[in-house]
Design goal:
The structure holds two protein chains of two kinds. By secondary structure, chain A is α/β, with parallel strands linked by helices. Helices cover about 45% and strands about 20% of the residues of chain A. Classes of the chains: A alpha/beta, B mainly alpha.
Chain lengths: ~325, ~650
């Protein structure tokens, strides 16, 4: 069939228009299928809960499901060692944690290297906090320090794992306060919290999230933040009390190494957008989390600083040689 | 009764539909080894965001309770627990199936699960806040003793040789140490391998240790897998009811044990069913029949594990501390719905909570008809399917199920290798169950021990820590009782000059036979493994990470040497003679390993199609006819592609793809 020239010109235009639209549509349509969001821990921890809170906002904003799965093992190492081998079309992302991804590879060969990871965004952190049961004799941080000074080693702290944020916090604080306490590692925040609620230990090195979840069952003596957490206006910061201690566990998202630059950027923007949502912010703060925003553009400098800080802190604590 | 007014809220058509759907999905998911309730619930969570909170909870709770029951199917019919909760169901379920009572076993399991589920839900409904204190009263040392109590079951499970059982248990405990230690950051027993850093995944180990030996034995002979009765016998509900009625004390005791153990965040369904089994066996008048197809064993395990569902919700809701991983997923879904768990939940959100609990009750009751129907179907399928198709199908399920746990090809390889090891050692009288017990209870024992030791040293009262706490003393007493009870019974019987019951409690026959060099060799290899572990322990930076493996390794070396010595002087029980084809036995794991290796290169579907067809040939004892060939191959294609689609798109498991598919 032979069409007049005009028509073929129109056809070409039409085709070009479709192509352009398709192109734009294609860009706007990323992600164009459900996204797999892997948590390298078991369910119920801080990483999982934050991911669960992101889930509905993601669906609402970007139209696709965020499917969360748990690939547990080696304190996260099993998942992170697999990350770069996963599907790199941008529809697979994984939760990452600091200090884990710095400390683990520095300690031993765990199948991944910090520098091989592609973090695209750090979106939240859980500030370190000392948690005691509501009925504890320690009303203030000073009570605890005074008791620990008189009874070296007798104050026991539960915490999640060893070489972790909780453990690091205990060692650092012991040093800052000039006391000696005993750290008891548990299999996660849940068991560590149960131990302190049941008076099996004198206190717990946990996070502000523990205070949020347990309400008036527990009392936080101090939080490791620059300023007080909005949910706990009555709990002082370590800084106020004269201890230069801020920090906690940071959580972010990484993609496999093969993911294209624009998709990494797209992920950074998407997570940033969720982080800006008022509803999401409120849910996170009510849960005891603190929000941070480290986008992909600032990642390199940020990671370098974190690496330096954590490595030196861990060396000081004797966790790294 | 508390919140009775909410029963009506739970009885809306939509909620009943959710309960029904959840139970059916859960039962199917639970019956497939490797697929867990945690996974199914996690995938469904996004769907629940748009639901009423109570309906969402009912759906998730129904899946959970269904899955715990469904695990019994494969435990009974294939000797492979579908979930870790049904490990102990294999002890009596599989022997029952072997003697042709698989249908009865499934019906008994269904009744027990329903009763157990109802008891757990009842406690959740009525006594949740006070019972949640149990979770807090249990400290590290109690967990340690609980694990020891569980390990004492090894004595009963060692099938003739206590020393072999203890060696097997020690091997399992050592295997549980592989990877990054929970009590320290040390990496143990990986010998530089990165794939072992994540440790030996328990579900993968269960599948390998229990299922591969069954498959290896299946391919060797042309015999049917299970006895097929001539005339259909229906559900055998009457017989099952009679058994349940006879075992009513067992039923209630096991359900209560299940509820209490379920409340403990560090334990779970597998520990609950082991404890309940141990107690049922001790208390039963025919305790010596346990492990040989005694329905009382199934009553104990299946009622207790379903009771953990209600029990586990108690700390989850009251304390915000999840009782099990599945509870943790449900807890996360609740948080997104804006529901804060905690002591006030039952008053502030009473409508949601009580509607949910009633929904759980309804789901549990619905499990009776659906469970019987699905169970009948599962039984008929396994019994009637030709062996040539059964073997590749089950082998395929073990691979896909193991892979799905954490998307790991190395887990699949570990699963197969453990299976081969399990088969070999069981040939020489080392039962698999003590190894599994060690694997499951090892982390609980070790963490409890290290924590208790650390705290005890800090407060300067180690003896008081280990032997001065009332709950601990209670558990210790039960441990001693269940260890000594068989001997006590024998002794009492002997005094009353009654005939000594066969089996347990009797000293082993000390008839000297010929030296059994093969067993001695296997035992020496085990001792060698213990030695290697001792060497490995010298490299640990943290003394906490050495204490446990060193103790266990010493036990392993000692027990293995005793076994070796006894075998060398001809005191042990010699291995039974093998019947059937050795090449076929060898071919099965070799084909599986090769195809697991092909997976990464050629993709999941091609590799599994090759495996299915190869195993079809390995398992085929009848002559090939064009009809059979066509039918079996077609079945293989449908099964492989169908399950691939289900896992890939239904459960979002990223199975390796390839240029081929």
């Amino acid at each position: 069939m032979k069409l007049p020239n005009v028509a073929s010109g129109t056809r070409a235009l039409l085709a070009a228009a479709i192509l352009t639209l398709g192109g734009i549509g294609g860009a706007a349509a990323f992600p164009d299928k459900p996204v797999e969001y892997i948590i390298p821990f078991g369910p119920g921890g801080e990483s999982d809960i934050a991911a669960r809170l992101q889930q509905p906002y993601f669906k609402k904003m970007f139209g696709q499901d965020l499917v969360i799965s748990y690939k547990e093992g080696g304190g996260g190492a099993v998942g992170w060692a697999q990350l770069n081998g996963l599907n790199a079309d941008g529809h697979t992302i994984m939760g990452i944690n600091l200090p884990h991804i710095v400390i683990q590879p520095a300690e031993k060969d765990v199948g991944y290297k910090t520098d091989d990871m592609v973090p695209v965004y750090w979106f939240q952190y859980t500030p370190d906090a000392i948690v005691v049961p509501a009925g504890s004799e320690f009303k203030t941080l000073q009570d605890l320090i005074a008791y620990a000074k008189e009874n070296p080693g007798r104050v026991t702290f539960s915490g999640s794992g060893k070489g972790t944020a909780n453990h690091l916090a205990q060692v650092r604080f012991d040093k800052l306060a000039g006391i000696k306490t005993t750290y008891v590692p548990f299999g996660g925040t849940g068991p560590a919290t149960a131990a302190v609620l049941g008076n099996q230990v004198s206190a717990s090195w946990g996070y502000t999230t523990v205070g949020a979840a347990q309400g008036d069952q527990v009392r936080m003596l101090a939080v490791a933040m620059e300023e007080r957490h909005p949910l706990f206006p009555d709990v002082p910061t370590f800084k106020e009390l004269g201890f230069d201690m801020t920090g906690g566990a940071l959580r972010g998202i990484a993609v496999p190494k093969g993911v294209a630059e624009e998709k990494r950027k797209a992920w950074s923007d998407m997570i940033a957008k969720i982080n800006k949502d008022e509803g999401f912010r409120k849910q996170m703060l009510d849960g005891g989390f603190a929000l941070i925003d480290v986008p992909y553009g600032e990642m390199q400098a940020f990671m370098q600083k974190q690496k330096d800080d954590y490595i030196s802190a861990a060396k000081e604590a004797g966790i790294l040689k | 009764m508390a919140g009775l007014d909410h029963l009506l809220g739970a009885l809306t058509p939509l909620n009943v539909l959710f309960a029904l759907f959840g139970v059916v999905v859960g039962t199917v998911v639970g019956s497939i080894p490797g697929l867990t309730a945690t996974m199914a619930v996690a995938v469904l969570v996004p769907l629940t965001f748009t639901m009423e909170p109570a309906s969402a909870l009912i759906l998730m709770g129904a899946i959970y309770t269904g899955a715990i029951y469904g695990g019994a199917y494969s435990a009974i019919l294939l000797n492979t627990p579908g979930t870790p909760s049904s490990i102990a169901t294999t002890f009596d379920g599989y022997p029952m199936a072997r003697r042709g009572d698989g249908d009865l076993a499934i019906t008994v399991a269904c009744l027990a699960s329903v009763i157990g589920g109802l008891v757990g839900a009842f406690f959740l409904l009525t006594l949740a806040p006070p019972l949640s204190r149990v979770a807090l009263a249990f400290g590290p040392v109690e967990y340690f003793w609980l694990a020891i109590f569980g390990l004492s079951l090894i004595a009963a499970l060692s099938e003739g040789s206590l020393f072999k059982g203890l060696a097997g248990g020690a091997l399992g405990l050592l295997l549980s140490c592989v990877g990054v230690a929970a009590v320290s950051a040390d990496v143990r027993l990986t010998f530089g391998s990165q794939t072992l850093i994540g440790g030996i995944q328990i579900v993968a180990a269960l599948i390998g240790l229990y299922c591969i030996p069954v498959l290896v034995d299946l391919v060797a002979t042309p015999d049917r897998h299970l006895h097929l009765e001539e005339t259909p016998r229906g559900y055998r509900l009457k017989e099952a009811l009679a058994i349940a009625l006879r075992e009513k004390v067992n039923l209630i005791r096991s359900s209560v044990i299940g509820t209490i153990v379920g409340i403990l965040p560090g334990a779970g369904g597998s520990v609950a069913s082991l404890v309940a089994y141990s107690e049922a066996r001790r208390a039963s008048r025919h305790g010596q029949q346990y492990g040989r197809g005694e329905p009382g064993g199934i009553i104990a395990t299946e009622s207790s594990n379903n009771a953990t569902v209600g029990g586990g919700f108690i700390p989850t809701m009251v304390l915000g501390i999840p009782g099990t991983p599945t509870d943790a997923v449900i807890l996360g879904a609740l948080l997104v719905q804006g529901i804060r768990t905690g002591p006030k939940l039952f008053t502030s959100q009473g409508a949601i909570v009580y509607t949910f609990i009633w929904g759980l009750v309804i789901a549990t009751i619905l499990m009776l008809p659906t469970g019987l129907l699905l169970g009948r179907y599962a039984y008929r399928t396994i019994v009637t399917i030709p062996k040539a198709v059964l073997v590749p199908t089950v082998a395929f399920m073990t691979v896909i199920g193991t892979y799905a746990i954490r998307n790991s090809e190395s887990d699949v390889v570990i699963m197969i290798i453990l299976g081969v090891i399990g088969w070999i050692v069981s040939r020489f009288g080392f039962a698999v169950s003590p190894i599994v017990l060690g694997l499951i209870l090892g982390p609980i024992a070790e963490q409890g021990f290290v924590q208790a030791w650390t705290i005890g040293s800090a407060v300067g009262d180690l003896p008081g820590m280990f032997f001065g706490r009332p709950i601990s003393l209670g558990i210790i007493a039960f441990t001693i009782l269940s260890l000594l009870y068989p001997f006590l019974k024998t002794w009492l019987a002997a005094r009353g000059s009654q005939p000594v019951p066969l089996g347990e409690g009797r000293p082993e026959q000390r008839v000297r036979g010929r030296p059994d060099w093969a067993t001695a060799f296997v035992a020496l290899v085990l001792a060698g493994i213990g030695g290697v572990a001792l060497l490995d322990a010298r490299t640990y930076g943290d003394p906490d990470s050495a204490a446990f493996p060193v103790t266990v390794a010493i036990v392993l070396v000692a027990m293995s040497l005793i076994v070796a010595l006894r075998a060398a002087i001809g005191w042990g029980t010699p291995p039974a003679a093998d019947r059937g084809s050795v090449p076929r036995r060898v071919a099965l794991p070799v084909v599986m390993l090769l195809c697991a290796g092909l997976m990464a290169m050629f993709g999941f579907v091609p590799a599994m199609l090759v495996m299915f067809m190869a195993l079809l040939a390995v398992a085929m004892h009848d002559p090939w006819t064009p009809r059979r060939a066509g039918l079996f191959v077609a079945a293989g294609v449908v099964i492989v592609i169908g399950f691939y689609a289900l896992f890939r798109y239904g459960l979002m498991v990223p199975l390796p793809g390839s240029f081929l598919l």
